[in-house]
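Researcher: Sequence recovery benchmark, item below. Answer with residues only.
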């Protein structure tokens, strides 16, 4: 289920975090104030963004030396924002609690070595979109990107 109001709030929060207007602690606090119940896209994007920052020390994504200068990382978060502004449902499989804990405990080795379930047929290069055509359709009419392409 798509929760448009929550997606709008989270997209703005990600924009503020990406631009350096807020630090990681404010990002975390503000995320937990967003009221969403059943939009799995919001939760999955939040879990993915967690990999881009340190939750032990206060910093901004654009702080010098933090390493977020990677074009791929910036493009990923811009793609997340684009998804949040879209009308697409999150279609990727959701990991169980057991799988999530195993991934964390094994630092990702669980996926590489033990998870033998068939992988999704979605296009990983445009995640959280499931299909490239959906991503391209959303990209052809982006909101808030001032015509910039990613």
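Model:
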């Amino acid at each position: 289920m798509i929760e448009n109001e929550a997606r709008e709030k989270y997209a703005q929060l990600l924009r503020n975090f990406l631009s350096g207007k807020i630090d990681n602690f404010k990002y975390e606090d503000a995320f937990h104030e967003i009221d969403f119940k059943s939009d799995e896209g919001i939760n999955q994007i939040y879990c993915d963004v967690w990999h881009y920052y340190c939750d032990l020390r206060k910093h901004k994504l654009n702080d010098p030396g933090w390493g977020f200068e990677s074009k791929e990382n910036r493009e990923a978060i811009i793609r997340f924002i684009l998804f949040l502004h879209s009308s697409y449902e999150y279609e990727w499989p959701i990991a169980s609690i057991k799988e999530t804990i195993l991934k964390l405990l094994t630092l990702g080795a669980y996926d590489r070595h033990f998870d033998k379930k068939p992988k999704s047929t979605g296009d990983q290069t445009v995640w959280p979109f499931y299909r490239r055509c959906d991503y391209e359709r959303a990209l052809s009419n982006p909101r808030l990107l001032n015509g910039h392409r990613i």
